[in-house]
Amino acid sequence: MAPVSPARAASPAAKRALSPATPRGSASTTSTTASPTCADSTSERASPTPKRVRVAAPTAAPAAATAAEVTGEAAQIYDRQIRLWGHAAQARMRSARVAVLGGSSRGLAAEAVKAMALAGVGKLVIVDPANVTPTASAANFFVAKEGGERAAEVVAAGARVLNPLVNVEARTDVDVTRVATEAEREQVRAVLASVDVAVLCDVPVPVAITINTMARQLGVKTLFAAVWGFNAVLMADLLEHTFLHESSESSADKDGDPIVTRHRITLAFPPLTEALAYSLATKLPPRQLKKSVTPTLLSFLAVIAYMREHDGRHPDLAKETDRDAVRAATAAQAKQHGVAVPEVDATALERLFRGSTLELAPVCAVAGNLLAQEVLKTVQGKQRPLSNLMIYTTAGGAGNVWNLGVVDTASVTVGE
């Protein structure tokens, strides 16, 4: 397929603005526009360079298995969505079971839960024993007090108000950030075994990798997202994922309807640890490699590598020792991907990751709704999902996507 030039994305707007986008690895980009309870979708195109994803209002839900029609009160509430993608898609959404692990006090999880609840995901399990933090209300609109309550229970209560048809469960008895012992991991496994998709919000990188490994063993798809100050990172491991892709072309008859062709496409995702070890040099020719492997990509991968070596701790780039460690990790990433080490001075690096331990409400709004959209696409199986790393920066006002080892394994035409 012909390369597609990166598409500019709008900067995060209002805190509650719904904004999803549908990209394909270092190979595709899409944009969608929809209201909080309804979503539209367009298909992707291939491109070897990182994609810029236009941030619009989020698409609504995806789901899992049944094709039973939605009837009664649900049919009235979801009428607009049903008109858009049909009873079967909405029914699959209502049968989906999604666990949101960690970060309940923060804005990222709140935004994602809000969008999934409005879209009509059948069951949401919010897992987090932490209390609401004193500053949570700055980004988490479910929080009205200054702390003390269990964050998962507060978010769950808010989600039930948004959509009483969604089964929302709060689990405060499992700490997903504690996976050092077998007993702790077994608690997390029990949660994972009860859902179809695990959404990891603002958990430490080493924890995300551990949970992803457990989820794969159970056949559970994983999405990981984190807001780092002015930036956000999303990663996906959807195991072997099949989705329906629609393309259209003009009819030979000038006044005729467009000809729509449907393809059922299967993708094979690597686990997060393999994606982070993947080299784009194995896939892209030198000219495209230089465009795709940007200083931003290398810097973020270097920070992720630093976190993996330091128990999830963010580097303090005001300290020379941490700057040197990140520079060394950047050089290692450049070697891994077969490019020259970028010249990134200390000031630029510090500016890129300033306030990385904080959260900004507009960034949470963008990232949370992008995350929710990816969950919806995953369970609905009707659009190309994120494949498989997105980095959103407010400095660039865009979400760039790279394909780190996701491969198309099958494509079958299923009708016109």
Explain this structure to me?
There is one protein chain. By secondary structure, the chain is an alpha/beta fold. It has 2 domains: 25-244 and 358-415, Rossmann fold, CATH 3.40.50; 272-352, no CATH class. The protein is built from 12 helices and 12 strands. It has helices at residues 72-77, 79-95, 107-119, 151-162, 182-192, 205-217, 272-277, 286-292, 295-309, 320-336, 346-352, 361-380; strands at 51-53, 97-101, 123-127, 167-171, 197-201, 221-228, 231-237, 240-249, 259-268, 389-393, 398-402, 407-415. The strands form 2 sheets. The protein has a 9-stranded mixed beta sheet, with helices on both faces. The longest helix is centred in the C-terminal third of the chain and has 20 residues, at 361-380. The two termini are 20 Å apart. Residues 1-68 have low confidence and may be disordered.
Fill in the keyword field for this structure:
416 residues, ThiF/MoeB/HesA, globular, alpha/beta, single chain, 2 domains, nine-stranded mixed β-sheet, disordered N terminus, Rossmann fold, three-stranded antiparallel β-sheet
How are the SSEs placed, and which strands pair?
Layout (H helix, E strand, L loop, with lengths): L50 E3 L18 H6 L1 H17 L1 E5 L5 H13 L3 E5 L23 H12 L4 E5 L10 H11 L4 E5 L3 H13 L3 E8 L2 E7 L2 E10 L9 E10 L3 H6 L8 H7 L2 H15 L10 H17 L9 H7 L8 H20 L8 E5 L4 E5 L4 E9 L1
Parallel strand pairs: 2-3, 2-5, 3-4, 5-6
Antiparallel strand pairs: 1-11, 6-7, 7-10, 8-9, 9-12, 10-11
Helix pairs in contact: 3-4, 3-12, 9-10
Protein name: THIF-type NAD/FAD binding fold domain-containing protein
GO biological process, one term: protein sumoylation
GO cellular component, one term: SUMO activating enzyme complex
